[in-house]
Amino acid sequence: MSLRFCRFLAVNIASAILHGQPSGYLTEFFHKYSWHTFYDVYSLGDITTFFGHTFRDGAPIIIPLWFLRDLIIVSICTPLIFRAIKFGGIILPAVLFICTTLNIRFPIPGPAVSSFFWFSAGAYFSIKGLNVIEFTDKYKGAIIPASIAALIVLTAVDTWFSVPGPYLTPLCTIPLILLCFIISSYLIEKHGATASPLLVGSCFFIYAFHLMDFPYIGTPVGFIRHILSGLMPASSLAIKTIIHIITPLLTVGLCIGLYCISGRVLPKTTKILSGNR
Questions:
Q1: Which residue of 146, 192, 247, 260 sits 20 to 30 Å from the alpha carbon of 237, by its own alpha carbon?
Q2: What pLDDT does 68 receive?
Q3: pTM of the entire structure?
């Protein structure tokens, strides 16, 4: 649970105990936001779609759980997706691919069109009996150079606060995800690589923890980026590139370290928070 939400509960419950009054703020909070608490209570700013329509985008009070929110909604739509692919073939994934790369969004807060695209793409491979490893191996001659170009673009362009950012991010993400299949299959087939139990166990913890908002320091990834920017204050592209690469590595290391400590101190709680993997 988000520390922000925990603090909110703790302060109001303590206030109710000390003053002998019911925690009116809690009642007002849940009355005002109700289900939005777990859907879109946290504002991610305004989103402008491809057609110029602007709407407020949001996330659950625990921001990284937007992924779980989208997964639940997409899973509910599974029968519709199955029928659309079964009888329409590649049409649905193709349309969702176009919407994803052009940043055409649903004019409502969550779920993202990209969630439906990746789910339907995986469903297409499964329903049609295709092998994603064979697919990426067949087209690796195009995927690898496209991934290199995508890395350069995502490093050089501010994808958060620039006009082309919303369009470049999904477009560049696609070849990079396919590249992960190429690298993974190569390591497994050629070098017999196996997944580390530590990384498998901590993967969800890393995902959920790296954007949790802590008092005074903010999020772990933002805190590390701030420290690196202070140590390397130069604004050259080379320094920005170094910070861009080192930040996620140090964040992952920090999260794994905290996961190990948490696993020793609170093993059962840690298993619950990490999906009991």
A1: 146
A2: 80
A3: 0.70
**Residues 255, 209 contacting (CB under 8 angstroms):** yes
Classify 110 in phi/psi space as left (phi over 0), alpha (psi -120 to 50) or beta.
left
> Residue 59 — φ and ψ, nearest 5°?
-140, 165
Exposure string for 40-59, b = 16+ CB within 10 A, e = fewer: bbbeeeebebeeeeeeebbb
Pull the structure tokens for residue 29.
């909070």
Closest CA to 70 of 104, 108, 39: 39
What was the pLDDT predicted at 176? 92
Written as one string, the DSSP assignment of 182-225 is HHHHHHHHHH-----HHHHHHHHHHHHHTT--BTTTB-HHHHHH
3-state SS record for 69-86: HHHHHHHHCHHHHHHHHH
Number of neighbouring beta carbons within 10 Å of residue 245: 11
Give dist(CA 221, CA 112) in Å, integer: 23
Give the helix, strand, coil percentages of the chain, each rounded to 5: 70, 5, 25
Strand partners, 59: 42
Give the span between the Cα atoms of 196 and 187, in whole angstroms. 13
